[in-house]
Structure formats: C-alpha cells, structure tokens
Amino acid sequence: MSRFAVIDTETTWGDAVMSIGAVIADSETFGLIDKKYYILTPFKDHGGMYDYALYAGGIKPDLECPREDAMNELIRFLATHDIDTIFAYNATFDFRHLPELRHLDWRDIMKLAAYRQHNQKIPSHSECYGTGRLKRGYGVENVYRMLSEDYEYCELHNALIDAIDELEIMRLLGLGLDRYASARIG
User: Fold this and answer.
1) Does residue 186 lie within any of the structural domains?
2) What is the pTM of this model?
3) Quick one: which of 68, 88, 125, 126 has the fewest CB in 10 Å?
C-alpha cells in the first residue's frame, strides 16, 4: 500500500458519533497527504464529554451533515486515495462506531505504542505486564508525550486534530507498516 488512513471519532453522552477526523498519509514517510473533518447532525447538539472541542481553534468541518451523508463522503474520500487500511488508536472503539467501514483492514496503533518491545521510549521504571504492555499511562496523551518528549502536550479531543496526533505517534514510533500486522482488529 502506498497510502493509509488514520481515523478518530468523538461521541456523545449517548454513544453516538458526533464527529469524525480522517487523515491520509504516505506509507513510507508517514507524511500527511490529505485530511477531512466531519461533524454529524443532529448529534453535535446532543452533548458529550468533548463537544466543546468540535470547533476548537477555529477548525471548520469539511461537512456538517447527517451521518449517512458524512459516511458516503468519507467512503468516497478513502476510495479516491485507494485506501484499504485504516489505523486508529484504540481502534476497536472507532471500528465499533463506524460499521460502514468494516470492509476495510483496521489496525490498532495502541497495540504497538503501549508495548515495551515496540516502543523504545517506554521508561525502564514503567510498570508493564508480562506481555510488555504498560499497566497504565498508555493513552494517546501519555504516549505522545513519551515519544515526542513534549511534556506540555494535551490531547485536544477534536477528531481531526486527534487523528493528526495519532499519525504523529506512528511516525515517532518509527516502525514500518508491516509491524502493524499483529495489530489487526475486526
């Protein structure tokens, strides 16, 4: 594959998707090629833990529309870039919330980023299970700080910005896409 996608969603208190961020990246450089941001109506008005971040920093959606329209556009967007593989941090969450994309190959960034054998930046004093996975502190914010050494970083919880940050986690891990074969879900 020459390109892949990273997707993030934010949900309402009622567990409905209220926004989707999708970025397209180059498989060799992990450089950002294209991006789309969707806010779903009427769910954006239903309230959620991170609804304050829907328009954070003046970010404007590419589409603000009903779910069916957003998903049709997202599927078209992915097809335009010939995407067959989607990455997400804690991908089972996004996979569960986006059944329209289950025909694609999903990989979980967290399944490598949270493991000592894949993430060389995990401090030696960190508590890990026998499998090598961190016992705590393996969310996006903690892992991003660990990899980037930017200890001021705070996850915004805007689906587009979070997808960009998750792509950066992949780039900072420095692992080829073939290493994510063990992180397949679905």
Assistant:
1) no
2) 0.96
3) 125
Residue 115: DSSP 8-state: B
Average pLDDT over residues 101-117: 98
How many separate domains does the chain show? 1
**What local confidence, expressed as pLDDT, does residue 108 receive?**
98
Specify the pairing of strand 32-41 against strand 85-88: unpaired
Distances (CA, A) of 5 to 22, 63, 87, 88, 91: 7, 18, 6, 9, 12
What SS3 class is residue 6? Answer: strand
Q: How confident is the model at residue 57 (pLDDT cuts 50, 70, 90)?
A: confident
Report cis status (omega within 30 of 0) of the bond before 42.
Answer: yes
C-alpha distances out from residue 153 to 58, 111, 142, 156, 157, Å: 19, 21, 9, 9, 12
Q: Is 116 exposed, middle or buried (0-12, 13-18, 19+ CB in 10 A)?
A: middle
Instruction: Identify the domain containing residue 98 by its residue range.
Output: 3-177
CB 3 within 8 A of CB 82: yes
Count helices and strands (H / E) in the chain. Answer: 5, 7
CATH number of the domain encompassing residue 85: 3.30.420.10
